[in-house]
Design goal:
mainly beta, five-stranded antiparallel beta sheet, 60 strands, about 0% helix, about 55% strand
Length: about 575
């Protein structure tokens, strides 16, 4: 029997606030009107079969489910909603899969030890000696996979087989463009590698090819090609749109700018490292790397070391020298930047070129606010940590600090903090301790309108609760596990799953426990709002053999969240 697993990782919308009690939202009154709940059975496990847990796949819209099941080692099926496949000798691992547009499912199965079949939406695409690496394009309208017949390998795109080759290299070499209009792969021909782009084999042959990448606008592609390998010595070059760039001893990750107009990579040349920007070497040093474009693509930065001095190079200008630099990042508006550096025996964070306070142990979890005007990070000394913001260090030091979260409107900052003497975590909201202390505090979640803050908290080993705007929901229910909370788009409702006991799970809306009981919700299960007052989720009934779609309509007179943040 499958056990329910703690539902999906919280939506990380940066957020947190300060309470304003405009209506004492202790919990939704028990005599309030109940939402309308409609349940639809999606898929039931056939008798005599057991589900392969890791095969369970939910469609991106969370309205369809597919999974593989077995009765013994040579009797396997795929169940897709209420459709059961034929019985197969074996199934490919990590199958089935869903297309990004929710319209298609696919899997690869074996009729026997030597005959593979590829199925897309129940249709047999063909029989092969073997098949693998099935992918959908980003739109979900096309698909491709590698197949084999007569000991020759080839690609199949939308059911159309390509040219047979000695081999097809799929690792980092098998991709659709972001717009789905182009497909590129690498083939082995006469002991050499060639790239095949848009169905056409490029004239250049190489010893090896890897790291095929498209630009965000799909207009450009590039890959790393090994031109020569003798003993321990290798020669590499980048090929962009079929045209080779200069040769280097080694080439690191290729990156495109977000507007697709530029391309950069670090390389090794004559025991030195160089930064290559649009095909030209722009810097040389003992170490050069970590290239990064700003979000608007107008700025470019990278790290660089000359002898024992490290720098950040931004817009062709060097920073102050340090003993080490790392974790450079741009703000969302691309106007600001930060990085962490080691200066002697201490660590510091530099924001827009201004050095922050020094710490002995580490600098951790830097974040800009969504509007880029604010920032926060943790500075760590032995047994003493401070949260640093644009206003300076926090007033009090703690033994340990959690990551900072900003509200979407950037007005509020929240994080959790720990004191050894109390052995509990407290919430710090806008510089002040907020609410009660708990043995454990999960991730913070702000509502989309930034008016509400929620987080799960642990009271004891066998009791968890949800704290919404400082109010403990369902504190008298003794729930053992809580799923991730989800706010409605307008911020009027907060919904989550809660486990009351073995195979006894409920949905909770604004602190009101709905009477319907479920066997559980699998890891990754989400709550999806279809409108401000309706949502759906997917669970299973007691016994773990029947998946059910749960559609919920919240009535207009159902109490809304009354508490809020200032």
């Amino acid at each position: 029997m499958l056990k329910p697993i703690y539902a999906v990782l919280f939506a990380l919308i940066f957020l947190m606030l300060r309470i304003q009690t405009t209506g004492a939202d202790e919990s939704t009154p028990k005599d309030s009107p109940l939402p309308t709940v409609r349940e639809t059975t999606l898929a039931a496990l056939p008798d005599g079969y057991q589900i392969i847990p890791e095969s369970i796949k939910i469609s991106p819209d969370w309205r369809k489910v597919a999974f593989a099941a077995y009765s013994d080692h040579t009797h396997n099926i795929v169940q897709t909603n209420n459709q059961t496949s034929p019985v197969y000798y074996a199934l490919r691992p990590n199958m089935p899969i869903w297309s990004p547009d929710n319209q298609k499912y696919a899997y690869i199965a074996y009729k026997n030890k030597t005959e593979a079949v590829v199925i897309v939406n129940g249709k047999d695409i063909g029989n092969f000696e073997n098949a693998d690496n099935f992918i959908f394009d980003p739109s979900g309208t096309q698909f491709a996979f590698r197949a084999q017949k007569n000991n020759r390998q080839f690609t199949v795109v939308d059911g159309n087989p390509g040219t047979p080759y000695d081999g097809i290299l799929v690792k980092d070499n098998f991709a659709f463009s972001p717009d789905g209009k182009r497909f590129i792969y690498v083939a082995v021909k006469n002991k050499a590698c060639v790239a095949v782009a848009g169905g056409r084999e490029e004239p250049l042959e190489f010893n090896f090819i890897t790291d095929v990448k498209f630009s965000p606008d799909s207009a450009n592609y590039a890959y790393k090609a090994r031109a020569e390998k003798k003993a321990m010595k290798e020669k590499w070059r980048v090929v962009k749109n079929g045209a080779p760039e200069p040769i280097y001893d080694k080439i690191f990750d290729i990156i495109f700018s977000y507007d697709s107009k530029h391309m950069a990579y670090a390389a090794i040349k004559d025991r030195q490292m160089v930064m290559v920007f649009d095909g030209k070497e722009i810097a040389e040093g003992n170490m050069v790397g970590f290239p990064l474009f700003s979000w608007d693509s107008k700025r470019f930065a990278y790290g660089m070391a000359q002898k024992n001095d490290w720098f950040i190079v931004l817009d062709n200008e060097k920073s102050t020298s340090f003993d080490q630099v790392y974790k450079f990042q741009f703000s969302l508006d691309s106007k600001r930047y930060s990085y962490i550096a080691k200066d002697g025996d201490n660590w510091l964070c530099s924001v827009d070129g201004e050095k922050g306070p020094k710490f002995e142990t580490a600098i951790d979890i830097f974040r800009f606010s969504p509007d880029s005007t604010r920032f926060a990070y943790a500075g760590v000394n032995p047994e003493r940590s401070l949260m640093i913001t644009e206003s300076g260090p926090s007033k009090e030091a703690f033994t340990s600090l959690g990551e900072p979260y900003f509200s979407l409107d950037s007005r509020h900052l929240v994080y959790r903090a720990f004191r050894v003497k109390e052995q509990k975590w407290t919430t710090v909201l806008d510089g002040k301790e907020f609410g009660k202390k708990y043995y454990g505090i999960g991730q913070y979640l702000f509502s989309p309108d930034s008016k509400h803050l929620a987080f799960p908290a642990t009271m004891s080993a066998d009791q968890s609760l949800m704290v919404v705007d400082g109010v403990e929901e369902c504190a008298d229910q003794k729930f053992k596990i809580l799923g991730d909370p989800t706010f409605s788009p307008d911020g009027n409702y907060i919904i989550y799953h809660a486990r009351a006991g073995e195979e006894k799970w409920h949905l909770i809306i604004n602190g009101r426990v709905l009477p319907e009981t479920y066997g559980g919700f699998y890891k990754g299960t989400s709550i999806v709002f279809d409108s401000p007052t309706s949502f759906h989720t997917l669970g299973f009934k007691p016994g773990g053999k029947e998946f059910v779609m749960i559609d919920v309509e919240i009535p207009d007179n159902f109490p809304k969240l009354q508490s809020g943040l200032k």
